[in-house]
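Researcher: I'd like a structural prediction for the single chain below. Treat it as a standalone chain; there are no partners to consider.
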Amino acid sequence: MGTLNTNREKLVKMAVVGEISHPTLRKTGYVVTAEGKVAVYPSVGGITYNQRIGDSAVDLMADHVEPGVSIRNTSPGFGEYSANSALNVLSCVGNRARVISGDAKGAIGYVTGKHGGIDHVMVDFPADVLEKLVIGDRILVEAWGVGLQLTELHPQVLVMNLDPDLLERLPVQRSNDGYLEIGVTHQIPAQVMGSGLGQSSAYSGDYDIQMFDQGVVERLGLNRLRFGDLVAIQDSDASHGWIYREGAITVGVVAHSCSVVSGHGPGVTTLFTSPSGKIRPKIDPEANLKQWLFQ
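Model: Treating it as a single chain, here is the predicted structure.
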């Protein structure tokens, strides 16, 4: 196996800031499920005390819940330029995040994913830190990773949304026959993927795994998905937004919980994609961010 050479010395590290967002719901609280029923569930935003990296992302009384802490930048935009877009695009999974206001000032956490639509960045902190945080506390992310390339495999394999230091800890290696081998907990066919299709960029947001066919869920083991799991999506190319392409493969991290809404489900933030199929996933039940963050 070959070593992974990268261009990390060329990457720019930049501070971006977000505030802990308040949870949001529709005025009635109701969502319409894929079965045509109405239900009320906790959803996006806020501080989620009992759902963190490594916990189950399915079989919850929840809809699109984000683990740990959800942040966004509320600064006004300048024409087509948006501070929150910069927070979303420049933040990378594994980036160090530091609380810069409030009772938990100085505490350190790590970016764990991004959620499209609501445009949140998720950050995980130790449980004792979560207890000290409040809505509105400001968090600075040391954004580093945009532009990261695997020297020998680029452009057959593209990297996005990934901290270079975290890359070195992941179960990833270059094979002698020119593939990137990656440990993943699940391999998922593109035909079960939903929300996220039609977006023009995978440098922010996520791509949802639909879980409405119980036979498929059981066959693929989707009921075992956890926040922070690395998963491979077959026949999926995320080079310029998520599309179906036979032979392509995308690997990402489970960023938010299951959903009852048609076309939605656990969201996957993209980390690697290969339109030519130069990624070789290998099943590793322990391939979860919990192994490499806070250790």
